[in-house]
Amino acid sequence: MRSAVLALLCVSAAPVLADSVPELALQSEHPVTGMRGGNLSGLAMCQGEMWAVSDRDDDQLYRLDPRAAQWQAETVTIEVPSVPESGLPWGVRMMGKAISPLRGGDLDYEGITCDDAGNRYVVSETHAAVLLIPPIGAPSWLKIDPALVRQARASGMLLHFNALFEGIVVNPQGNQIWLAAERERRGLLTIRKKQSVWDCKSGCVLMSEGGLEQPPPQLKAKAQHKDFSDLALFEGKLFTLERMAYRICRRTLDTGEVERCWSFANDALTQERLYKSPYGNAEALIIDAKGAWVGVDNGSHVRADGEKRPIVWRFAAPQGGWSAHL
């Protein structure tokens, strides 16, 4: 009797499990020409304009035109002041400094976001710092409470070189920022603006987790560390781009608790789109009512079909919208 009940439970649960991570449908694919260093690592939609950053370029941003048949990156030069101390330990900072000549840039921009006033915010992974670029005037680094780095490290994050802040998003009012720690451990943190300083009002750490995750079977790779590679904000929810799992997840703003996930592995990992790399390449995310823009940082890898430029994919929103199944 007990085995029959268990069998019945397994059968009834199967459809729910199968539907727990539904697939997003790819609508279009856009190679991007004109990014000097390649390596598209962040995307943001700012007052109707799409902006991108490269983790190889310290002195420029890129404006993209999603209406064009062929996407050409327009260079926008910025003058970056000296980076303030963030509280990262000496060893982590020295590793970043040592690798910068090989990487081609010191700052390692890994995300871009903007508020309703048109201010753009770019996160530097190497320095765990955020650069503010106003619509008019000179860029400046945010004054961030060192408690951000202290609390992150106390929770097991930001301990390893090249595994620091990988994603950023700001609220429309421009007074709260969420940051994603990449891996080993991954996590979500938030800071709030208090006069001229961004602080940890009630604690910066929303969540922190470790462990391994099996990539989609198309990659034929062993389990990798769970990771985050970008953040987006839409309709009061936080969306995480989870590179190794090839999925997008909706999470709560206050705790980072996952509510719903969608995979994009089926269309992203077709035979012609595969790279000779065991790692995920999706690094940039924008969410809107009609779908998601996902940016691919292919590094020096060439796709199976010969494409070697950065790519931006457009996926349709899930059936019922991003707020379905709350």
UniProtKB/TrEMBL annotation:
Name its species.
Pseudomonas endophytica
- In the record, what terms sit under GO molecular function? isomerase activity
Q: Which UniProt keywords apply?
A: Isomerase, Signal
Q: What does UniProt give as the signal peptide span? A: 1-18
Task: Spell out the Pfam families in the cross-references.
Answer: Phytase-like (PF13449)
This protein is called DNA topoisomerase IV
Q: Which InterPro entries match?
A: Phytase-like_dom (IPR027372)
Give all residue intervals belonging to the Phytase-like domain.
Answer: 38-185
